[in-house]
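During the second year of the project, the team shifted from modelling isolated chains to modelling whole assemblies. The rationale, set out in the original proposal, was that interfaces cannot be judged from single-chain predictions alone. As a representative example for this report, we include one of the complexes processed in the last quarter. Its constituent sequences, exactly as entered into the pipeline, are reproduced here:
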Amino acid sequence: MLSIAVITIIQPRDERSQPARIVPGYPQTPWRNPQQPLLQRPPTLSELTGPLEVAKRVRLLGGDIAGHGERQAIGQLIHLRVRVLDEDGAPVAGTVVEIWQANSAGRYIHPNDDDHAPVDANFYGAARLVTDESGAFELRTVKPGAYPVRPRGGWWRPPHIHLSLFGRVWLSRLVTQMYFPGEPLNARDHILNAVPDAAARERLVAQLLPPSAEPHNALVFEHQIVLRGRAATPEQP
Amino acid sequence: MKGRFVPTGEATIGPFFPPRYVDAGANDLGVLEGRKAKGEPIEIHGRVVQEDGTPLENLLVEIWQADAGGIFRHPADPRHAQADPDFLGWGRAATDNQGSYRFRTIRPGAPQGRAPHINFMVMCSGLMRILKTTMFFEKNADPVLGAVPLSRQQLLIAKPEKPGLYRFDIRLRGENETPFFDD
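Output from the structure prediction step:
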């Protein structure tokens, strides 16, 4: 007998915890977001199912991207411990997570990033892994640097890590960004501050754990991600 | 009783999504681990543009669909035990410098209560949230197509260009803007 809940219920969004679509100071947003109101539709099986085996289509890269031995990335070594939950707080196990970030100087390995900041030959900045049974994963990386946004206008992105997650159904797909505590640029970032609710913004910021004996050489941050959906166990016949 | 956990805020995918995440073959749903899916092979391509008609490069398109029998590879589908083992139903493509994307897949069957369709989502710099829409092959009765005002339904119907080749353009904003759903 199938013991896991297979039906997912999607509730309306809490709009105050989600970002505005058109963001003052972010020049691309008024050109790319629909003018017409978004349409309400009845959820059907098509939207309440989704790809559970993405790892059969894409290659996993692991979660250790800070380098080893002679080839260590430059920067502050960090371990990031993330838990992925649903709206009941239940773990979302076995889901693909894609992670990308700038190096410690604020430079991405991407043809679009032709900034002056130096490339670190030992840091590519991309991890792709699967959550474990408790919905958790750990990333070993270096803390990303801040960088100026083009077109230049005095806006700098604070240090952040990009995350892309799938979850159990089509409507649980999430692309988000995680921030670091105590960064002065957080309060000025157009993207972080597009989320109206202060408590919801706070939940986008990772927490620094008190330093301990292990790992002796890295700061440890914790973070929690909640994907849309609650599990409903179908009635047994 | 468990408290309700509030879903994490979305953010833009930005301009720096790693190109290697658009894996070779990620846009070919017709083959899974070397085996061919059942059904009629088709190709879907199109261009994604912003309000002034500028094509958008480096934009991510993902699709999700039922197999040739109209079954979703997911345990919530009561028929999933009969799903085609060689069809995953999910794919990803990035737009090129002409704003064009392309998928190879199979023509989906009609899921229960639905017309044949393919779910689309797009992500790019300047989109703070994922935009979702649905592509149809014909104007048939369907609860999702029916949620679209009559005057805009045609924008969700793919254009057959030749046998097995469909065009589905996506206009994010402006005249003849693609209908997107609030979910």
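Chain A has a mean pLDDT of 93. The longest helix of chain A spans residues 198-202.
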